[in-house]
Amino acid sequence: MKPKVYITRKLPEIIVRKIEAICEVRMWPEEDIPVPRDILLDEVKDIDGLFCLLTESVDESLLNAAPNLKVISNMAVGFNNIDINLATEREMIVTNTPGVLTETTADLTFALLMATARRVVEASAYLREDKWKTWSPMQLTGQDIYGATLGIIGLGRIGEALVKRAKGFDMNILYSNRTRKPEKERELGIQYRELDCLLQESDFVCILIPYSPQVHHLIGQRELGLMKETSVLINTARGGIVDESALYDSLKEGSIWAAGLDVFEEEPVSTNHPLLTLQNVVALPHIGSASKQTRLKMADLAAGNLIRILTGKDAITKVN
Ligand code: DGY
Questions:
Q1: Contact 135/113 with Cβ under 8 angstroms?
Q2: Is 4-100+292-310's fold the same as 102-283's?
Q3: pLDDT attached to residue 69
Q4: What dihedral do alpha carbons 248, 254, 255, 257 form, nearest 10°?
Q5: Which of 98, 215, 260, 298 could form a disulfide with 116 if both were Cys (CB 3.0 to 4.6 A apart)?
Q6: What is the pLDDT of residue 67?
Q7: What class, spelled out in words, does domain 102-283 have in CATH?
Q8: Distance 213 CA to ligand 1 centre (A)
Q9: pLDDT value at position 99?
Q10: Band (27; pLDDT cuts 50, 70, 90)
């Protein structure tokens, strides 16, 4: 008998076929609407494998509803949507999709940095709204990127990939990390700083750490207060790392200059969110890894992990 799998979102045909070759597949048929919780809890009752996204909370109630579950394959590198301790306790294997999205996410992080520093979104709206009446000396002036100091919070794969991009702009690069990486410092020509010093010295601060309760609101009022008035904060990791109401106050008061946000504490973010009323915020709908090639690679890796576990092999990229 084929193992039973539930896929929580409509996937490209080629990926579904790959899973169907080995498993009996049921799939939520919508592309842009997440599966309602009651349907999900019902669908997981008899499954051996779950293919899920970061939009699904794989918590105690879901694990209780899925007594046969052996593998949870998350189509994301982050896995803060999954109760890893409980899954491990119940001997369920959790997999994620690191590596394949590194360069694409670094690209978007740098794109957001540039768009925020040079007010690209605001300037485009200015033109379309017919506000462009003449060229003038200080019109829509932003912050220089080349030669500026970049502070990276979290020197993982994406952090390192960001360093390569920043080098092309002659940036002076600082990083903070749970553990210092002297070899990387030599190899990449970057310098370590404790978080407070990094915040004080950087012109651009990019957050690239995984979310866990330990880093909830790591960047709050005190930390934002350490940053320069001309500095820019970029978050392409997880919304919960930044205290959004403190960020709003800092941006409004001008204690930092601008923010580029691809992630929010609640997603999708409400269009009434105070941060979206500010001109000095560039906001994106969590598209860090969203290139066609990369999303296909992520789906393929997640499918590969799922199939390997259900056929008695080791996962390619295992979390627990
Ligand atoms: C992830 O993989 O964790 C991203 O947030 C989505 O690509």
A1: no
A2: yes
A3: 98
A4: 90
A5: 260
A6: 98
A7: alpha beta
A8: 17
A9: 98
A10: very high
Residue whose Cα lies nearest atom 3 of ligand 1: it is 78
Domain ranges, ordered by start, for the chain: 4-100+292-310, 102-283
**Residue nearest atom 7 in ligand 1 by C-alpha distance:** 289
Atom of ligand 1 nearest to the CA of 96: 2
Tokens of 296: 């296909």
Instruction: Return the structure tokens found at 203.
Output: 């012109």
Out of 2.30.30.40, 3.30.460.10, 3.40.50.720, 3.30.365.10, the CATH code matching 4-100+292-310 is 3.40.50.720
**pLDDT-derived band at 47, boundaries 50, 70, 90:** very high
Q: Which among 233, 221, 295 has a CA at the least distance from the CA of 262?
A: 233
Amino acid occupying residue 117: A
> pLDDT tens digit string along 86-122?
999 999 999 999 999 999 999 999 999 999 999 999 9
**pTM for this model (two decimals):** 0.97
**Which tokens hold the place of 234?**
């970029």
Ligand 1: nearest atom to the Cα of 237 = 5
Q: Please report which residue ranges of the chain form alpha helices under DSSP H.
A: 13-20, 37-43, 60-65, 84-89, 102-117, 120-128, 157-167, 182-188, 195-201, 221-226, 244-253, 292-310
- Tokens matching residue 171: 């940036």
